[in-house]
Amino acid sequence: MTEPLLKVRGVQTFYGKIQALKGIDMDVNALWWTKDSMFVNPNEVRYIGRLHGICTFTVAIIYTTLFENMILKKAFCTSGCSSRRILKMKKQGWQVNYPYDVLRICDAPYDGVCVLCQDTIEGDHSTFECKCAHICMGCLRKHYASLHRCTICKTEVNQEMLKNEVRIYNAIQFDQEDAWYETIVMRS
User: Fold this and answer.
1) pTM
2) Total structural domains in the chain?
3) Are residues 50 and 118 in the same domain?
4) Could you report the per-residue pLDDT of 39-75, keeping only the tens digit for each?
5) Number of neighbouring beta carbons within 10 Å of residue 11
C-alpha cells in the first residue's frame, strides 16, 4: 500500500491526506470505508438526516437512505459546496440536488407572468418564502443581485443566501453537452 493510513478514533481509514471529521460538501462524502466496514462520519449523521428531511434518532434510516442514494448515484450538496464539485459529480453521471432555503423552485405549469419581464412563465420558475411573486428562472439568474425584497409584499430576502442558491442552481442546471456544443458553434 503506497498511501498512508489515517487513524480516526481507533479506526484505520484509507483517506490519507484529508482531515478527520471535517465538514462535508455533499452527503455522499460522509461515508467512510475502512478495512473491515463502512460507516458515516458521526459528526454529520444528523445533518445528513436533516438534508434528506429525516428527523429521527434512528440512524439506521439515515444510513439506509444514504446507501440507496449512492446506488442510484444521487447526491445532495450542502450550501458550501463549490460549483466545480457539482459539475464534476454531474460529469461522472451523478444526479445532484440541493434543498433550497430561500428559493422555491417549481417546474409545475403556471398560468401567470413573471413579475420582472411580464412574459408567460414556461418551465422552471421560483417564488420566495412568502410565495407572492413568481419569477422565471431566466430573470432570477440575471437580476438576483438587485432583488432585496419580494416585489409584491416587500418581505426582505437574505441576499447572501439568494446569491449562493442561484450559484448552486446554475451549477446543477449546467449541461456539459450544451456548453460544449455552444463553444464549438461560437468558435465557427
Assistant:
1) 0.68
2) 2
3) no
4) 777 777 778 888 888 887 778 888 888 888 888 888 8
5) 15
